[in-house]
Amino acid sequence: MSDMFDLDAPTLSRYVMKNTKDPELVILLNSLATSFKLIASAVGRAGVAKLYGLAGEVNSTGDDQKKLDVMSNDMMINALIHSGVCCVLVSEENEDPIIVPADKAGKFCVAFDPLDGSSNIDCNVSVGTIFSVYERKDGSVNDLLRSGADCICAGYCCYSSAVELVFTFNGGTVEGFCLDPTIGEFIHTRIDMKFPADGGKRIYSCNEGNYIHWDKPIQDAVSVFKSGVDGEPYTARYVGSMVADIHRTLLYGGVYIYPADKKSPKGKLRCLYEGIPMALIIEQAGGIASTGYFQGKIGRVAELVPDAIHCKCPIIMGGPRDVGVIYDCYKKAG
Ligand code: AHG
Ligand code: MN
Ligand code: MN
Ligand code: MN
User: Fold this and answer.
1) What ipTM describes this predicted complex?
2) What does the alpha-carbon distance between residue 279 and residue 155 come to, in Å, rounded to a whole number?
3) Where in the cell is it found (predicted)?
4) Ligand 1, closest atom to CA 116?
5) What is the DSSP letter of 121?
6) What residue owns the CA closest to ligand 1's atom 12?
7) Which of 59, 90, 184, 280 has its CA 20 to 30 A from that of 113?
8) Residue 144, pLDDT above cutoff 90
9) What pTM value is reported for the model?
10) Is 175 within 8 Å of 191 (Cβ atoms)?
11) Pairwise CA distance, residues 132 & 302, whole Å
């Protein structure tokens, strides 16, 4: 009838209702989607609503909190508590876990980074939200200190030229949804997301300002990227918002690294609400999510068991071809 309107919009709710038999999971994703719409609105109005700048506090990993970090956190906490399906919440912005009052408690435990890349807010560069979901065992924080194998759902929302939600049910496909602001709904726009089959673009993505702190194999790998593989040098791209850097890596190909180094022996990114959820997305899209050499071996990020809610982990995530360049450098180093 019309080219302008989809009369049968494939919404997020429709996808979730079709792909889980668990009504509480439908409620949870609906509440998460509400918080992403609120955050997107606040990010979009940051200039006019005077939301740039610092909130004045420092969080548990030493980051200066921005006003929008605090607001986004409150939006997520409110949406999740009132969903009635959560019992324990862990946020980058809260030192301690939040135990949901019994009258509102349900079976899900959710860890989240409410606003990722918040150093980019004040200059309007892409930011995001990252989340992972576990099921209650004893209702304590231990329910979240588990490896990625126990995570039932993980994903991110990217606030940029478009607002895009990407998530996966553990063991399932990776699916992408774009917010259609004209109807306020996330629409299923990317089906069964996979790394480009041919490896995609040769891109390396890292904060190269840390070069002097890196171990030799990481320095060597970045030198290989710059001098070229098969005569073709890599392109450098680094947004400095993990969500944006991972989203680009998934869509275009390449490798994103934030390794352990002499200054940060466990890396910078947080295991529970940055490392593990992104690792599940990357692996289920056909990529590799490695710690690099860490704690005596080269392991998967998804198999780490966090020993504290704000613990950190090193990250090497990307397509097999490009992560392979880094593995070769580890092999050469012996
Ligand atoms: P957050 O803004 O949630 O604290 O996360 C910051 C993280 C991540 O988004 C980004 O990839 C990385 O820190 C950037 O770190 P550098 O500024 O050290 O490059
Ligand atoms: Mn932070
Ligand atoms: Mn972050
Ligand atoms: Mn954050």
Assistant:
1) 0.99
2) 10
3) Cytoplasm
4) 3
5) G
6) 240
7) 184
8) yes
9) 0.98
10) yes
11) 12
